[in-house]
């Protein structure tokens, strides 16, 4: 093979690589990232975790979710130290990711051209692109490398657009502007690094629905997020059902233990260590008498779990 042929092959490979590089990940790539999920998916490839599970997840403690994930080898899913728009309102949802970087003019032009090829709105700022694809129940999660001054990804206009599309909010390793206006959007919430009156400048969107880093956590598109006043935790979609059920059973065990301690039937040492067979039987009898309409899970889910974890 002569040098000219080799050069032509290299150029052709390079051209294919450029054409294949999209702003937003392809459905096939997202399916590869989330291959352990076996359920329904969105058109963009993200796992479609049920609304019912998202609702139940709101009652799970961050510590319970953290412990469950650690037990399955996922040690880098939590991030804290947030400014929260409405601290008393927990949020759960399916993650749409976006990555921002310091502005570089030549790269920005490439992103703009590729965005136009993907039929994205190139008249306004590219920070509107992730918002345009949000579905009900989504949470917009963005890596803005912690920048607040000149790193305000949204103000109240885009905040209203986010809520209109997702009925949810945002988690930004970055800042926002017009915090007063964002606070007034009923139902909207946000976990942010700070607020500032400056506009977004010297910063650019580089990708949508790719793996990103939020503080010390790694986040994939299609993860499920639990966010409350104690932090944020990003859960692989294929683990969320088991995590929710396990946490709900732990909550029932705690309720049983607190009741028995108040009744002085057992000592703290008996409840706070591995249960004897007698306490396990007492708990099972207590659970069997628990009203079905007050259980967070179905009776079948509970029985199947208890039978598998005797």
TrEMBL record:
Entry keyword Disulfide bond: no
Cofactor(s) needed for function: Mg(2+)
Domain of life: Bacteria
Leader sequence segment: 1-20
Entry binding sites for Mg(2+): 178
This protein's UniProt keywords: Magnesium, Metal-binding, Signal
GO molecular function: metal ion binding
InterPro entries named among the record's database cross-references: RraA/RraA-like, RraA/RraA-like_sf
Matching Gene3D superfamilies: Ribonuclease E inhibitor RraA/RraA-like
Binding site for substrate: 155-158, 177
Protein name: RraA family protein
Gene source species: Cerina litoralis
Phylogenetic classification of the source organism: Bacteria, Pseudomonadati, Bacteroidota, Flavobacteriia, Flavobacteriales
């Amino acid at each position: 093979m002569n040098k000219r042929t080799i050069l032509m092959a290299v150029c052709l490979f390079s051209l294919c690589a450029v054409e294949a590089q999209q702003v937003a990940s392809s459905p096939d790539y997202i399916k590869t990232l989330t291959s352990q999920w076996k359920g329904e998916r969105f058109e963009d490839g993200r796992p479609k975790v049920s609304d019912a599970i998202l609702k139940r997840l709101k009652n799970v403690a961050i510590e319970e979710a953290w412990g469950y994930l650690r037990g399955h080898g996922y040690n880098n899913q939590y991030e804290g130290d947030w400014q929260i728009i409405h601290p008393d309102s927990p949020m759960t949802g399916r993650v749409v990711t976006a990555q921002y970087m310091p502005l570089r003019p030549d790269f920005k032009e490439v992103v703009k051209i590729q965005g136009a090829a993907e039929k994205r709105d190139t008249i306004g700022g590219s920070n509107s692109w992730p918002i345009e694809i949000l579905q009900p129940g989504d949470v917009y999660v963005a890596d803005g490398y912690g920048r607040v001054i000149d790193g305000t990804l949204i103000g109240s206009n885009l905040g209203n657009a986010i809520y209109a599309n997702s009925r949810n909010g945002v988690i930004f390793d970055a800042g926002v502007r017009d915090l007063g206006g964002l606070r007034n959007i009923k139902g909207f919430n946000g976990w942010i690094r700070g607020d500032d009156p400056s506009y977004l400048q010297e910063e650019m969107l580089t990708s949508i629905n790719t793996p990103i880093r939020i503080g010390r956590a790694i986040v994939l598109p299609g993860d499920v997020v639990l966010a409350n006043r104690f932090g944020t935790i990003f859960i692989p979609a294929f683990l969320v059902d088991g995590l929710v059920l396990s946490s709900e059973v732990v909550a029932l065990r705690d309720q049983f233990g607190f009741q028995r301690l108040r009744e002085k039937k057992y000592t703290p040492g008996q409840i706070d260590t591995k249960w004897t067979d007698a306490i396990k039987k007492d708990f099972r009898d207590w659970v069997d008498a628990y009203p079905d309409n007050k259980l967070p899970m179905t009776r079948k889910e509970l029985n199947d779990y208890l039978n598998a974890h005797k």
